[in-house]
Design a protein that fits this description.
The protein folds into two domains: 355 residues, no CATH class; 83 residues, no CATH class. The protein contains 18 helices and seven strands. The strands form two sheets. A five-stranded mixed β-sheet has the order 4-3-5-7-6. It has a two-stranded antiparallel ribbon with strand order 1-2. α18 links the parallel β3 and β4.
């Protein structure tokens, strides 16, 4: 596939088709957590961190700011779509970084950059799930990938400006989610310094200043903005939880399955390249850039690989690097195999239509006891103008609150029930007679939702 026009058209359709599930799906999983964070930031006027049901959370605010900005444009009644739009734009941004890096790494192939962007956009994990889902992960991953790309240019070309830019990018990643991005950035820095033998840069004033700036951002945020180290403590605790309480066999299973999970969710190109290697005796050559990509992938994934609790979400920042590696392998295929890769990618793009408009909604929303909006309508009709509190912080409870909040006057946003409130309705996730009179119970998505009147 050496013609650029078909690649451009495929990229356009892949990019646009990422938007398909946005208006169709109700809240999925923890999407409502991020939506509530943005909405409460707006109604409370506290811009430095997220809150949940009026309770302050030590979560950095950048994703909420982005969601809030989109909500102002499309309307708060579309709050469920707003964080997804942020995620899609982040995925498009990551595809652009992939494009730019492929142009740099494979300069002898005019179509390489377009192929790399197409491979990234149509990776299973990106195209069908986290690339559009209203979680912070796609945005977090974009900034991490951008930081590593800038750092690569900075180290290889010894360009101080790109070093400063990489620090800006990784600082924005921190402001999206948490401090764990610095561990990935630090590992990538060591790999690149080793690969290009640029250890002397550690003594260069601009690079030293960049390192100090990188360290100072989370410190300044935690000590002068939220005035607590809870963000770092939470990230460290979650990281340690991935190592604690697992048996040796759990570790062993994770060590074997985690890389397979990474490559499987990078389908279809990962699967095709393995098929060509196994069945058609295709062999791939490793030049210096491809070896560097392997080093970067192996080293940065290692902390999540060696733990037993690493989940697929932790792998999102690395699909850009994987797309570049796969592009390097695809460029080595003959015309027939390259055409086969392109045809399968086109099939995947077309598959996104029924997946987005029928399969996924059926699985998540259309089956019995899956429709969140029906429950929200009933609750709204029952509660009318009364204040609503909640003691339900599972995914269904968060989603109900997010849908209700945008129907209520801003000052009546749903707050956490503290035990002393009266003349109000309370949502609960378990049967709790002490809350007052049980008005109704709904089975919903494997959970139960209880509505009580607190006299």
């Amino acid at each position: 596939m050496n013609h650029i026009k078909p690649l451009k058209r495929a990229i356009l359709f892949a990019a646009l088709f990422m938007l398909l599930p946005l208006p169709v799906m109700q809240y999925v999983g923890e999407e409502s957590y991020y939506a509530l964070g943005a909405y409460e930031m707006f109604v409370r006027g506290i811009w430095s961190h997220q809150s949940l049901f009026g309770l302050d959370m030590p979560k950095t605010p950048l994703f909420s700011w982005m969601t809030l900005a989109v909500s102002h444009v499309i309307g708060w009644q579309h709050l469920d779509i707003a964080p997804r739009i942020v995620s899609v734009f982040s995925s498009w941004g990551a595809a652009l970084i992939t494009f730019k890096m492929a142009r740099r790494l494979f300069p002898r192939h005019a179509h390489a950059a377009w192929m790399a962007a197409l491979i990234y956009l149509t990776m299973g994990e990106v195209f069908f799930w986290y690339g559009w889902l209203g979680y912070a992960d796609a945005t977090f991953s974009f900034f991490i990938f951008a930081a590593i790309a800038c750092l690569w240019v900075a180290v290889e070309d010894q360009r101080a400006a790109f070093c400063l830019l990489s620090v800006v990018m990784i600082s924005l990643a921190f402001m999206v989610k948490n401090i764990s991005c610095y561990a990935i950035f630090g590992i990538a820095s060591l790999v690149l310094l080793h690969r290009y033998q640029r250890w002397h840069l550690l003594k260069h004033p601009v690079f030293v200043l960049s390192a100090l700036l990188a360290i100072s951002v989370p410190w300044l945020y935690q000590h002068y903005v939220i005035q607590t180290d809870a963000n770092a403590s939470m990230a460290l605790r979650h990281a340690l939880d991935n190592f604690n309480g697992y048996s040796f066999f759990a570790y062993l299973k994770h060590w074997f399955t985690y890389p397979a999970l990474f490559f499987a969710r990078g389908f279809p190109v990962t699967v095709l390249l393995l098929w060509f290697y196994w069945r058609q005796q295709q062999r791939y050559k490793m030049d210096s850039n491809l070896i560097t990509l392997v080093w970067l992938l192996t080293a940065t994934i290692a902390p999540f690989w060696f733990s037993a609790g690493g989940t697929p979400r932790y792998l999102i920042p690395f699909y850009g690097l994987l797309a570049l590696l796969l592009t390097g392998f695809v460029l080595q295929l003959d015309t027939k195999k390259t055409a086969a890769v392109f045809k399968v990618i086109i099939f995947i793009i077309i598959l996104k239509i029924p997946f987005s408009l029928a399969v996924l909604p059926y699985i998540k929303d259309w089956r019995p006891q899956r429709d969140i909006k029906t429950v929200v309508e009933e609750i709204a009709n029952i509660t009318q103008t009364h204040q609503i509190y909640t003691a339900n912080d599972v995914a269904t409870g968060l989603s109900i609150a997010a849908y209700l909040d945008v129907q209520l006057p801003p000052e009546k946003y749903i707050r956490w029930y503290r035990g002393s409130e009266h003349q109000a309705y309370v949502l609960a996730e378990v049967k709790t007679p002490d809350l007052g009179k049980l008005i109704k119970m709904w089975p919903l998505r494997g959970d139960h939702v209880y509505l009580y009147w607190r006299p």
